[in-house]
Amino acid sequence: MADHHVVLVGGGHTHVQVLTAFRDRPEPGVRLTLVTDRRLTPYSGMLPGHIAGHYRREAMHIDLEALARRCGAGFRLAAATGIDRDGRALLLADGGCLAFDTLSLDVGITPDLTGIAGADVHALAVKPISGLLDRLDALLDGPQAPRRILMVGGGPAGIELALALRTRFAAREQRPWIGIAAGEALAPGLNAGMRRRIRAALARRGVTVLEPCRIASVDADGATASDGRRIAADVVIVSTAARAPDWLATTGLAQADDGSVLTADTLVSLSDPAIFAVGDCAAIEGQRREKAGVFAVRQGPPLVENLRRRGRGEPLEPYRAQRNYLAILSTGDGGAIAGRGRWLALEGRWVWLWKDWLDRSFMARFSARD
Known about the structure:
- There is one protein chain.
- By secondary structure, the protein is α/β, with parallel strands linked by helices.
- The chain has 2 domains: 4-109 and 244-312, FAD/NAD(P)-binding domain (3-Layer(bba) Sandwich), CATH 3.50.50; 112-240, 3-Layer(bba) Sandwich (FAD/NAD(P)-binding domain).
- It is built from 10 helices and 25 strands.
- The strands form 8 sheets. Strands 5-2-1-9-21 form a 5-stranded parallel sheet, covered by helices on one side.
- Helix 7 links the parallel strand 13 (177-181) and strand 14 (207-210).
- Helix 1 runs parallel beside helix 3 (64-70) and helix 1 crosses helix 9.
- The radius of gyration is 21 Å and the shape is globular.
């Protein structure tokens, strides 16, 4: 039987599961190649814990080259720049190309700072995480500690990062002003019980919430809100808007407003049956969900099943993303807040220990084996 070549573009939360699934149960006649522009990929669930000092940087990263090797997959360190759909080839920044029978995209998102004047020059974007960590370490560990830090974005990511930064500075007996510019409202996607607990945690830890506060511009001395308010800051971090990588727009694949590849419920592109898309760079038609790591993790098993089915020439299985999901936010001080749906809200040290166990268990699946 001729090889059916599956090319995985990007080492996101979904693709790493594909690698281990095909290692544990190889599919006859199917071979995998992972293409990525970086050897190490971060697990976003552990980012706040790393910034707070709970995890070393290595603990929150997966070595993609080592993982591919252990799983018997090929590995190509190169950035993707386009797709020759007629010729069934992935185009690479190094001038090469890679032929495929099936292509799967899990390339994440990039910051979209176009709505905030000056942010591309004067602010730090949370995504991609690797870029954030390098610049954040240089600023926070530099000779002069920042006195005022503004987080732009009142969603779960901004909240967790603000609390993690508070913990990081407390370990040095420093207490800079930390504020969150929360747009229209703080954590609007979470239930009322979680929001109450989050507000209490922010107040307890001395994080200022500015709401409604939509940032219009950023400069070297801080930010200006759309209502004219001036907020002084040495460091401005943006955790709001992001979009799919620009090169996807050159592929001719159907896209959502944010550049995400539109797929059917089988995770296959609406435009090409040979191309799958998952994680933050994709959107399932009729199943709009927020960009959260939990959805990328949950897409692992259905993507594995449908890659196997395509390799066999069998009909694909539909997948429906859950509407309600468990959200857990670490408060940075050894506690965490969890919730699901409209009513469930929990808080305590045990919630953090639970989250820590979940995150470490997920990462252990992709670490080196003896």
